[in-house]
Amino acid sequence: MSWTTTHIGIGIIIAEILLRLIDDDSEFRKGNRFKFWWAGALGGLAPDLDVIPALILGVHNYTFHHYYTHTFLAVAIIFAILAIKKFNPYLLAFFLGFVLHLTFDFLDNSISPLGPFDIILNGQYIEWGLLTGGFQPMPCIGGVCGWASEFWFYPEYANHDLWTIFLNNGWGLENSIEFMSAYDVAFSIVCLPLILVLLVGSLKKLITRG
Fold first, then answer.
1. Residue 178: its H or E element
2. Is the dihedral of CA 20, 193, 180, 63 positive or negative?
3. Who's near 174: CB < 8 A, 6+ residues apart?
4. Distance between CA atoms of residues 105 and 140, nearest Å
5. d(CA 2, CA 45)
6. Number of C-alpha atoms within 13 angstroms, CB side, residue 192?
7. 178 - beta bridge partners?
8. Alpha helix stretches (DSSP H) within the chain
9. Do residues 194 and 7 touch, judged by C-beta distance below 8 A?
10. Whole-angstrom Cα distance, residue 33 to residue 19?
11. Model pLDDT for residues 82-97, shown as the tens digit of each residue
């Protein structure tokens, strides 16, 4: 799956591109850069906030993950807000970061973009994943349904033995309960400095205003 730094960093990058397309005035860019970056970063992070309800309820982090915020419905709601409001470049940056999050998850993981309508109409989620099986019903193992691309639903990984998983899946580098794919490592090298610049720069501005 795409790591958090990748999603946030891609949001920052698309926000910078948007800023450069909207205005070529250097002073405007300098004065508004961090606002655009924050909007893109939050848009890139927003879909994964669906883990918060699980944390509050004390269930597995992925109990609600990818079902509601990683959907065409979520994209449509944000787009509708964008369309009916007076043009807001920050909201557009947020929207682009959000859409790119889903795009990257589709590329190397899987999402359920038809949710929650697929479960309502067909009684099961259909997961979409370019590198993880294409378009297929979400598999169920022992009565528990979950993403085929998530290692803890594989029968051979049922013991959550991270070292065994690392040796057998060959997908990426061990990182807590997740793994970073090769491109995540590459993107993190680019994205982490951007995130640090955003945090440090924003903090300096707050201190200056104070």
1. strand 178-181
2. negative
3. 162, 163, 166
4. 21
5. 11
6. 7
7. 175
8. 4-22, 26-45, 52-57, 72-84, 89-108, 117-122, 162-169, 182-209
9. no
10. 7
11. 999 888 999 999 999 9
pLDDT band at 110 (very low <50, low <70, confident <90, very high): confident
* Angle separating helix axes 4-22 and 26-45, nearest 10 degrees: 150
Task: Output the CA–CA distances (angstroms, integers) from residue 131 to 24, 39, 62, 161, in the order listed.
Answer: 38, 29, 20, 24
Distances from the Cα of 62 to the Cαs of 2, 59, 84, 93, in angstroms? 15, 8, 33, 27
| Cα angle, residue 78 at apex, residues 75 and 80 outer, rounded to 5° | 105
Question: Could you please report the per-residue DSSP string of 67-105?
Answer: TSSSSHHHHHHHHHHHHHSSP-HHHHHHHHHHHHHHHHH
Rounded-to-integer distance, Cα 207 and Cα 210, Å: 5
pLDDT in tens, 116-161: 777 667 766 777 777 656 676 765 554 445 554 444 444 443 333 3
- DSSP 8-state code for residue 156: G
Lookup result for tokens 């979520």: 74
Burial label, 6 (beta-carbon count in 10 A; 0-12, 13-18, 19+): buried
* Residue in the block written with tokens 């944000």: 78
Say how many C-beta atoms besides its own lie within 10 A of residue 60's C-beta: 14
Measured distance CA(99)–CA(57) in Å, rounded = 28
Residue 53, both tokens: 């309800």
- In the block, tokens 């691309």 appear at 149
